[in-house]
Design goal:
The protein is mostly helical. It is built from seven helices and no strands. The longest helix has 45 residues. It is flat.
């Protein structure tokens, strides 16, 4: 009888150890996955948007696209050398939106980081995307990009920054470093 009780206790302890091991293993896998997703998000937020290709595409869209190509043709009918700029920017913001929607990265992090550029890009590209949607007969073309732009356009970014405790200087750094330095002329008193 003592031997049977000992065997039962050994089995219970073994099962408990197995359950604990599985629980810890799952927890470590979730943490590793979360870390990996955060790495991807930070890579996108920092390296991609600061790359020369991205900046060239952004510059083209902001300064030349509307002057050189009518939005009526949509996106896919644009020449490849132009379409690549549009798609690079639109897919970038779509990917960020997907990461926020599926919980890979905080929506607040993305919104406080890219709110102005995403709204500016959407404002310029919306007529091209809408034309493409009409041609495709679907309102889903670049809908993740639109989602992020919509969130950014209505976000209280100042309030978000305040909640983060971001600090600012009360006057320019140069003026604090040398209080006797000449101040730039006021716009109302500057001469043309």
């Amino acid at each position: 009888m003592l031997q049977a009780a000992t065997s039962v206790i050994a089995i219970v302890v073994s099962v408990a150890a197995l359950v604990i091991s599985v629980a810890f293993g799952r927890r470590q896998m979730r943490q590793a996955s979360s870390y990996s997703t955060a790495q991807v998000a930070m890579e996108m937020l920092t390296r991609e948007s600061r790359s020369e290709l991205f900046m060239e595409s952004e510059d083209y869209i902001i300064h030349r696209l509307a002057k050189e190509h009518s939005p009526e043709q949509g996106v896919l009918a644009l020449p490849l050398n132009i379409r690549k700029h549009v798609q690079r920017i639109a897919y970038y913001y779509s990917d960020l939106a997907i990461l926020t929607i599926y919980g890979g990265v905080s929506q607040d992090l993305v919104v406080t980081t890219v709110h102005r550029p995403v709204v500016r890009a959407w404002t310029i590209l919306e007529p091209y995307i809408e034309a493409e949607r009409r041609k495709l007969g679907s309102d889903r073309y670049f809908n993740f990009f639109e989602h992020l732009a919509s969130i950014c356009a209505t976000a209280d970014v100042v309030g978000m920054h305040n909640r983060l405790g971001l600090r600012t200087f009360d006057k320019p750094v140069a003026a604090r470093a040398n209080p006797d330095a000449a101040q730039p002329p006021d716009a109302t008193t500057a001469k043309p």
